[in-house]
Request: fold
Amino acid sequence: MARQFFGILILVLFAAHHCAAADRPNIVFIFTDDHAYQSISAYGSKLNVTPNIDRIAKGGMLFNKCYVPNSICGPCRAVIQTGKYSHQNGFLVNGNSFDGHQQTFPKLLQKVGYETAVIGKWHLGEHMPPQGYDYSEVLIGQGPYYNPPMRKNGKFVKHTGYTTDIITDLALNWLKDRDGEKPFMLMYQHKAPHRNWQPGPKHLTMFDDVTIPEPETLFDDYVGRGTPAKTQDMSIAKTMTDNDLKLVTPKNLTPKQLATWNAVYEPKNKAFREARLTGKELVRWKYQRYIKDYLRCVASVDDNIGRVLDFLKDTGQADNTVVIYCSDQGFYLGEHGWFDKRWMYEESLRTPLLVKWPGVTKPGSVNDDIVSPLDFAETFLDIAGAPVPDDMQGQSLVPVLAGNTPDTWRKSFYYHYYEFPGWHDVRRHYGVTDGRYKLMRFYEPDVNEWEMFDLQNDPNEMQSIYGRPNVAKTQQYLVAELKRLRAELKVPESDPPASLGGGKDNPTSRTIRKKNP
Ligand code: SGN
Ligand code: CA
Reply:
C-alpha cells in the first residue's frame, strides 16, 4: 500500500514539474520500418488488431493518403530530416551516406530551445553520429531483432533482449531522465517489422490456431502491367529464403532465447518438411509463415507503443504532446504475390499516418488530403513556433491537423525511386498521382515503359490503361502535371551520381541471390 502511495506521489510530482516546463508542445514521433497500413486495425485490417496504434487514431486524425517520395528506408528518413526530396538532400538509395552537415529539422528545433533525441533505427550511415540530437542511441545499420549492438551518442554499447522492447525501454528511460525544463522532440524508431520478421518471445505462438486470409492478388500473373512487374525479384514464391521462413535457426540468440525459439519452430518445421508441399500449396504455406511472423512483430510494436502512451498519460504529459505514428513506407503483405516495397503502386506508396494532438486534432477524424513524410520537418518546426526555411519542399500539416486544409493544398504528388540495380530488381521509375489516377514512367534505356491506373475502377492496379484512347485527356493532364512537378521540385534530367549507391547495403540482386540459402 505504502509503496503504491509513493509510486503515485512520484508520478504526480513528475507530472507537475513537466507541465510547468512545457508550454510549447512536445513531439513524440513513433516510426516503424515497413509497417503496412493493411495491418493496422484503425485502417480496417482484416488480419490483426493493433489496439494501441488505434488509440492514436481514436484520439486524433487518420490519414488515408500519406505518400512517400521514395519508397525505401534510408531515403525516406533523409526526406524527414531535411523536408526535401532525395535529389535535393543527396540520399537517393540505401547505401548512400547522409550528409549530416546540411540543414535538418532537429538542428532547427534545438535552436528554438527544444531538447531532441533519436532512439532506435537510424539507417542513415555510421560515418557520423546523428546530428542535431542532444541524445542518440541508434542501431547499427539495419540492426538485429535480438541482442542489438547500438551507438549511444556515438559510442558502442551492447544490449541483450528483444530489440523492440529494448528500444522502448531506452525511450522511456530518456523520457524519465531528461532535462525537464525544455519541450522535447523524441524520435522513437523501431526496426520492426522489417525483414526477416523475427517475433519476440512473448508473441512466438500468436496466430498459431488461425489461418490468416490471403490477399486477392496472391497469385498475380502481372499480365496487365509491363516488364518491371514481370521481372522483379520480391515474390513470396521465388525470393523468400529459408532464413525468412525460419527454416534455419537465427544465429545471434543466447542459449535461452534459442531454446525458446526452437521449441516453437522445430515441430512446425518438421511437419512442413513431411508435408512435401509443392506449387500453390507451397506458396500458401510460405504466405502463412511470413504473415504470421510479420504480424507477431507488429503485435510487439503495438504493445510497446502502449507503454509509451501510458507513460505520457500517467505523467500528465499526454495533453501537451503531439504523438505521430508513421512507417518509412508501406509494404506488400502478399498483394501481387510480393513482400518488400519500392514501387509507386499503392501498397508501398501509401504509408500509415496517425496524429494525435489534444485540442487540435478532432478525435476519430479521417483525412483524405495528399500528405507526405516530406511535410514532417515543416510540421515539427511549425508546432514549435520556429520559422520554416524556404528551401524545404513540403508544407506544414498544422492547418490540416486543425481541420482547416488550405485551398492551395497540393492536389498531386511526385514520386521517384532510384535503387536499380539493387535488392529485389525493382526498376527505376518516377510518376505522379492525384489520389485517383496514377502515371508511372520506368525510364532506363533497356526498359522504357509507362503505366497508368485508375484506382477508382481498378483499386488493385491490375490493368494499366496507359495509351487507351478513352483516357487520353486524363493521360495528357497527368503528363503535364508530371512535367510541372519535376520543374517545380527541380528534379534533374539525369539521375545524380549518388543514385548509383554502392556500399554493402546496395549490391546487385544477382549477387544477393547467390548468397541466399
Ligand atoms: C535488406 C533486406 C531487403 C530490403 C532492404 C531494404 N534484405 O537488404 O529485403 O529490401 O533491406 O530495406 S535482408 O535479407 O537483409 O533482410 S529498408 O527498409 O532498409 O529499406
Ligand atoms: Ca523500410
